[in-house]
Sequence to fold (173 residues):
Amino acid sequence: MTQHMQSVRFGRRAGLRPMASCQSGAGLIEVLVAVLVLSVGFIGIAALQARSLSINNSAMERSMATVASYSILDAMRADLTNAKSGSYNVTSIKANACPSGTGSLANAQINQWCTVDLAPLGVSASTTGTIACSLAAGTTTAYCTVTVQFDDSRSGLSVSNSTTQTVVTQAML
Fold:
């Protein structure tokens, strides 16, 4: 046999390595492994985004509860005489059963607080508001505590197996 025939027969071209040792491109297994690793990474990012969204919603609800407590305190500052006399004191307002807004300015303010400020936290019996004001001994200053309680079960966070969040604001009028 000639030199040229031997090269072709054994899978060689003149001056090159044998074909069995040359590899070009990526194998199917390598591509599948890369796609699997990328998929797991994307699933992790999606889970992180979902968790971040629920935690941000929880923070927004706590902010809304704080704004609601400041809102009733501002209304009480506008009607200082009635606030100091205890007209705004309520033991528990439920967002699904707001009190009547008739009779006095304090009743109208409490009704509006319930329907406008507490309702976005959830119109249910678990969303409640409490106002307690008392005069400081020997002064004309009143110390007021506003408590807003709401259900935060959508956040997925639970402190000692409770999904109820409580925001307490204290002010001096």
Remarks:
- The mean pLDDT is 83.
- The CA atoms of residues 153 and 161 lie 10 Å apart.
- The radius of gyration is 35 Å.
- The beta strands are 90-94, 128-135, 142-151, 164-172.
